[in-house]
Write a structure and sequence with these properties.
Layout lengths: L2 E6 L6 H13 L2 E6 L14 H14 L5 E5 L6 H11 L5 E3 L3 H9 L3 E3 L11 H10 L9 H9 L2 H9 L5
Parallel strand pairs: 1-2, 1-4, 2-3, 4-5
Helix pairs in contact: 2-6
The protein binds adenosine-5'-triphosphate and magnesium ion.
């Protein structure tokens, strides 16, 4: 059995992420979850802090009685050729990488990792971009994320935060 690695920004952690992690754990003894662009928060693309995202993921997995995971916040290095080494410097060893991001795929492939794509599940609804858009527009986003994530976003007043970020000072 082996350890697998998945990386995302998880802005926010949604049902698609949860399903993919559950699938990965059917084939691996544990999963390392990298929280990418960890230094960013309070922007429209990255509204939540690394700590808030960490809480979303750990509370959700623990509520599903999943404990064989490691969450590692990963700040950007702004150098693609250095990025895999940067990840390796922060994480336990792993052999398999799961991603749908073409750049991440290529960078790990060049370092001889076993890289797999994941099947996209209900991508129309289960997409971070779409969920953030729903929050701004006052549409129903709650069913696209685990209930543990709904609770955390309510607790930190996340929807007002995103709406405030979407405001403009133009006339
Ligand atoms: P954003 O729209 O903000 O980029 P996202 O939904 O793509 O959000 P990421 O954090 O970028 O979420 O994704 C992390 C990984 O999970 C990526 O490899 C992405 O392709 C994958 N992923 C995201 N949503 C799904 C889904 N519905 N089914 C399968 N994989 C998904
Ligand atoms: Mg994405």
């Amino acid at each position: 059995m082996t350890r697998a690695f998945i990386v995302g920004r998880f802005q926010p952690f949604h049902m698609g992420h949860l399903e993919v992690i559950q699938e990965i754990l059917k084939e691996h003894e544990s999963v390392i979850i990298g929280i990418g662009s960890a230094q960013y928060s309070h922007t429209l693309q990255n509204p939540f802090t690394a700590g808030e995202r960490h809480l979303m993921i750990s509370n959700t997995l623990e509520s599903k009685k999943i404990f064989n995971f490691y969450i590692i916040p990963i700040e950007d290095v702004n150098s693609n050729p250095l990025w895999v080494a940067h990840v390796e410097s922060l994480t336990p060893n792993f052999s398999n990488v799961y991603t749908n991001n073409p750049l991440v795929k290529r960078l790990f492939f060049e370092k001889r990792y076993n890289v797999k794509s994941m099947e996209l599940i209900n991508r129309v609804e289960w997409s971070g971009t779409r969920i953030r858009e729903k929050m701004i527009n006052g549409e129903n986003w709650e069913r696209d994320v685990p209930s543990t994530v709904v609770e955390i976003i309510k607790e930190i007043d996340g929807v007002s935060r995103i709406r405030a970020l979407a405001e403009t000072d133009d006339a």
